[in-house]
Amino acid sequence: MQSLVRHPVALALLAIAALLLVGSTIAIVPETKQGVIVRFGDPKKIINRYRPNEDFGKTGAGVILRWPFIDQIVWIDKRVLSVEMERQQVLSTDQLRLQVDAFARYRIVDPLRMYIAAGSEERVSDALRPILGSALRNELGKRPFAALLSPERGQVMDNIEAGLNRVARQYGAQIVDVRIKRADLPDGAPLESAFTRMRTAREQEALTIRAQGAKQAQIIRAEADANAARIYSDSFGKDAQFYDFYRAMQAYRYTFAPDRQGSTAMVLSRDNDFLKQFQGR
Amino acid sequence: MKRFFGWMPGIASAMAQGPWGGKSDGPDGNDGQGRDGDGKGSDGPRNPWTQPGRPGAKGPSAIEELLRRSKESFGQGGGGFGNLPPRPSGKALWPAAIGILVVLWLVLTCFHRVGPQERGVVTLLGKYSRTLSPGISLTLPAPLENVTTVDVEEIRTIDIGSTRAESENLVLTGDQNIIDLAYSVRWNIRSPELYLFQLSDPDSSVREVAESAMRSVVASVSLEDALGAGRTEIEQQVEQRMQEILDGYRSGIRVQGVAIKQADPPTAVNDAFKAVSAAQQTAQTYLNEARAAAQQVTAKAQGEAAAFDKVYEQYKLAPDVTRRRMYYETMEGVLSNVDKTIVEGGNVTPYLPLPELRRRAQGGAPQGSATVEGQ
After folding, report:
1. Is B30's Cβ below 8 Å from some Cβ in A?
2. Could you tell me if A166 and A178 lie in one domain?
3. pTM of this prediction?
4. Residues A171 and A93 in one domain
5. Which has the higher per-residue pLDDT, A110 or B336?
6. ipTM of the complex
7. What domain range includes position A57?
8. From the CA of A1, how many Å to the nearest CA of chain B?
9. CB contact under 8 A, A212 and B283
């Protein structure tokens, strides 16, 4: 005892050794991980395996014991993981091209199976990615372009999810969700022709609006004219003869008004009605 | 917990007294690891290196000698591994320093200040144990319990697309048109535990879900709706759909709102859209002009009709007199302004001095002559 204390290097070495031993016996399992205990390559036990709807604190997380230096733990993510698909060009049944981005979310529900079949989460993602791509292409390729934009898209997604799930199960994974992130027209000709279509549609709309405006304006004017005519005839029609006289008087006054342009000379006959009194008859 | 706090008096006395005593075999010598070394040290076998009595004699001890000398060079001979037990009264700095470190470690890792907008998620050796409310809370020291504080009140914003012209976020609408969309999503954390433990990358998940939800909603509305009238409804639908998806992941995230900042036609076709609004303006102009003219025409008719009616009323009372009066008055007005030539009727040939008249009409203005014949 005494001598041990006297030799701190020895003490330190001992402590390190003890620490190593403890460290390799005790393992701390976080909530976000599940693991497979592997003994000489032979998977023995699954720890903290995912179960749906479990409450945190009641899972298998915490401290576990293992055989030091014999048991190895392969850690596998317990959370929802994501796999993103590269952009895919999809040809719909009506020969329109669509550029599609999609993602799938999955989680490892069977860590042992996943460890045997893939080895790591990354390899599961790598395995799922091309399958997601081809499932998407196949499923979308069966439909006309318009269907991809319609609410039917939900059905498409369900089909893809089912197909992908079959493959995922082989890797001990379960697909949580598959979604199309973007569905775009490819750059170049398809996009340009869509723009052209939009542009011509707008031009047509503009012309229509203008023509409709002109039409409405004309109708308004005509209605006003008709209305005026009715007012005139209602009023003047009471005595056409007097109207003729009255209107003539107005016209004379207007025509020979002093502020009219040009000078007027009049040659009056003696028989003129105006000069009737001239003659004293 | 008890055990750790049990150390406290020991440390205190160590700091006060200086002598570390032969008993406490320096678990603190290696700090946190000490508690393992503790058990080990008591029943540890005699070391092969320890048999030589004094240091400095043989191979491995040379290191110790070196250590001792270097220790002696500062701190007036205190400290030094080998020297502790034989000098019970020596002023050892080592224990004090270690004691301070331990206290610091305990203070820093046991007390947690959780802000009013935060929650602290405590894991006991990896296992979720509880969530701390705002305030000061006590936990076990670091390696045992870990606290992750999560800001649950902060509204995080994700911007998708931008309002600047150079970058376009083109989205297909239900009628196969394309719009340029910029929107932002506001969200916060509803459940810190789920947020920490459920998704491998919650932040980018929110983004992807937002994009997916927005595109699927826009794909179900028409261009007109997406550009204007239907915006609020789109925002609500996206928010709802996002929440459904995120709840499906049990992500612990609440979507606070989706705001469409910009929904415009793409730059490539913007001119055509402007032409439409210009056409609308033009059409409106046509209508305004027509309405004005119509008002004018109607008012004129009404005025003239009213005037005629008034005169006619009087005329009917005394038709002949009124008629003559009107005739004379008009003629008066007309003839007083013009040059008059009265010609004797019968066999006189009237001579019209047209050249003369023309000369009199200055400036080549159109001139005319008229003969007013009585009825």
Report:
1. yes
2. yes
3. 0.65
4. yes
5. A110
6. 0.74
7. 2-77
8. 7
9. yes
